[in-house]
Amino acid sequence: MATNTEQVCEHSNLYLNVSPHASKAGFKRATERQRILAATKDGRFRKNLNLLTPKELFEDEMTFPGPLVLPDDDLAEDPECPPQDFREWRDEEERNPVTRERKTIYIIPSPTIMPEVSKMTKWSECRRQNATQEKEQDATREFNTQQQLEAIADHPKGQDILEYLSAFFHGMDVKPFEKPFRWQKWDKYAGGILKSPNTERRIGLLAPNNELFGIRCRLSPDGVSPMQVNLDDILDALAENIPPDAHSVMMLLHMDMYEGDGDVFTAGRAYGGSRIAAVSLFRDNPLCAPHDDGHAWPSSHCAAYIDQLCLEASSPPSKQTGRQPSSRPRQDSGGPLHVAIEAAAVNAKRKIPLEASSVQWLERTVVTMAHELCHCLGLDHCTYFACAMQGCANLDEAQRQPPYLCPVCLEKLCTAIGEGTRNGFVRERYEALRRVCERWGDASVSRMFAGYKAWLDAVIERSPGGDVMVIEN
Fold first, then answer.
1. Of 167, 297, 313, 425, which sits most exposed with the smallest number of CB within 10 A?
2. What Cα–Cα distance (Å) separates residue 320 from each residue in 118, 276, 317?
3. Residue ranges in the chain modelled with pLDDT below 70
4. What pLDDT does 333 receive?
5. What are residue 204's DSSP bridge partners?
6. Is 75 part of a structural domain of the chain?
7. How many helices (H) and strands (E) does the chain have?
8. How far apart are CA 18 and CA 24, in angstroms?
9. What pLDDT shows up at residue 7?
């Protein structure tokens, strides 16, 4: 076990709206009334709103706070990103509906590496400084640091991934894709690590239909991964191998990915209209991902943490202009976000279990996968709340974002999945997610799962016990 030696922050004040950096970046959040109207099926404000999220929770910032919009975040870089309300989602011509005949999500494991390209096994090894030495240390001895523990993290298990996604997309079938994809030679190239950063080669990807695709590959620009594969070429291979009963298919890759020549890396992408998506496990490897200093979600709303990031981004430090959101002291009756932060707290003297890094790798991966699969259901990036459907510009931002869907995105997801009217659908979905999170509900194993379980407990408790009506397609 490793000892948790990090300095403990009490998170005594929280930002429940956007950060002070938001106005500097030019981001203007939708008003409370606009957010409510965005979730309605006709865009009209009525006394009795037929919303899946109770109005008192919808308007409670301690349940659904605003997006942080910190320096270098996606909304800070693109503050005029157009919001997608429920009606725009519903009326999108390219949206693929879930039907009785097509309601299965297939997850394709990383392709098998054939012996002729065995050099590709090196492609999934993180090259972060000292990572190789840490990985080679004896895994049987007593661990003294978090970094040593990270070195023995295991890839997320397929069954764990399926269980989380089955709960997140409650009402759809989530299954493994049984027919294998295989890496093999393309021409004479056998997967050796290239020497020049300006060189691009192709590696062969044999699809189940026996068609061989040439997948572009290159050196990683930042040197964190040995080699990267091209996302667009991967998606082309997927598009030709969609089962008849599939709503969408996603490939999960062990190696790093890139999309365009100017990209450093791409963690995942979905082409919703084509029902295909790909996600890389590589950057969520604890050896590659940013270290969680205690301010990953749910503690990412900590005012002291946010103020420090905003201060560091000011060069030279300047006084913010315009009206700034206020930080709010955290109260004992502060709501789901408060109980999530409490549940995610870790005693500084507590030992970290050996499984912790592996579970943290899993948590980051499934949140990314759920985000991309929601794109396959037609959901665009969210600008209304802190939400699992926010855009993400970097790995630090990814750790700060919540795993839950905001009230607007929840309306879209449940309407997409719902077949007519479903009684208690939202509650069933929340309870299914809670059962999955409970497996790793110890904060020393996973702050995210522990916080998410507590958040779900609080939301379920505060939600009405009667039937919840899902808007008909």
1. 313
2. 55, 43, 9
3. 1-7, 47, 128-152, 315-333, 347-350, 419-423, 465-473
4. 54
5. 184, 214
6. yes
7. 16, 15
8. 11
9. 52
**Assigned domain for 241 exists:** no
Specify the DSSP class assigned to residue 277: E
Q: In the prediction, which pLDDT does 369 show?
A: 97
Beta bridge mates, 2? 352
The number of folded domains in the chain is 1
In a domain? residue 105? no
**Which pLDDT does position 466 carry in this prediction?**
45
* Residue 457 is assigned to a structural domain of this protein: yes
| Amino acid at site 52 | L
What is the CA 425 to chain-centroid distance, rounded? 23
Asked if 114 and 251 count as a contact pair (C-beta separation under 8 A), the reply is no
Is residue 302 classed as helix, strand or coil in its secondary structure?
A: strand
Count of other CB atoms within 10 angstroms of residue 101: 9
Instruction: Give residue 217's pLDDT.
Output: 97
- pTM attached to this predicted model: 0.90
Q: Which domain holds residue 409?
A: 1-95+295-345+377-473
pLDDT in tens, 397-452: 999 999 999 999 999 999 999 754 455 889 999 999 999 999 998 998 999 999 99
Q: What does the alpha-carbon distance between residue 70 and residue 459 come to, in Å, rounded to a whole number?
A: 27
* 337, two tokens: 């976000």
- The structure tokens 């590659």 sit at 288
Residues in the chain, how many? 473
Interatomic CA distance for residues 437 and 433, integer angstroms: 6
Residue 22 three-state SS: helix
**Runs of H (alpha helix) within 91-240:** 131-135, 146-150, 158-168, 231-239
